[in-house]
């Protein structure tokens, strides 16, 4: 059996997840209290809510909250990364973190995404290649990696 991976989330994302969890549990309780027993739509909604409750619970159990990683320039969860797509020359800045935690409108890539998996562990100036779901290879260069707490939006 493998040990679950710790995940990084900001304090504000942690609070939003707690608030969402509280609201979902309250809605589920209201659904159960008012259910007539045979409504298929209500049953489907309840299943969706239960799945989301479990997802949030799992995130919160393994969350490392607000502890910024070291400011060492290495791409890892909790870092805001700026990469250049080498072929096009375009740049993108995003948080390497957990999808579903919303961080002030910033794009988030997880370690399970093709780009996140490829760029993890890179240092500024390092080039990495990843495959898209369509099978094409994309080359990116890490330009900067800054802890989320030190990142200043443009």
TrEMBL record:
GO BP term, example: regulation of DNA-templated transcription elongation
Domain (Transcription elongation factor GreA/GreB C-terminal): residue spans on this chain: 74-143
Gene Ontology molecular function: any one: DNA binding
Protein name (database record): Transcription elongation factor GreA
Lineage: Bacteria, Bacillati, Actinomycetota, Actinomycetes, Mycobacteriales
Keywords in alphabetical order: Elongation factor, Protein biosynthesis
The keyword Protein biosynthesis is annotated on this UniProt entry: yes
């Amino acid at each position: 059996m493998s040990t679950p991976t710790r995940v990084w989330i900001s304090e504000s994302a942690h609070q939003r997840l707690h608030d969402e969890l509280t609201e979902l549990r309250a809605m589920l309780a209201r659904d159960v209290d008012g259910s007539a027993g045979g409504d298929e739509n209500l049953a489907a909604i309840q299943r969706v809510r239960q799945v989301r409750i479990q997802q949030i619970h799992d995130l919160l159990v393994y969350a490392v909250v607000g502890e910024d990683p070291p400011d060492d320039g290495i791409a890892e969860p909790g870092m805001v990364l700026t990469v250049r797509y080498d072929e096009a020359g375009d740049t993108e800045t995003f948080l390497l973190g957990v999808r579903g935690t919303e961080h002030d409108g910033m794009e988030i890539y997880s370690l399970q995404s093709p780009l996140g998996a490829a760029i993890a562990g890179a240092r500024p100036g390092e080039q990495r290649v990843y495959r898209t779901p369509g099978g094409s290879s994309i080359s990116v260069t890490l330009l900067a990696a800054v802890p989320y707490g030190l990142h200043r939006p443009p």
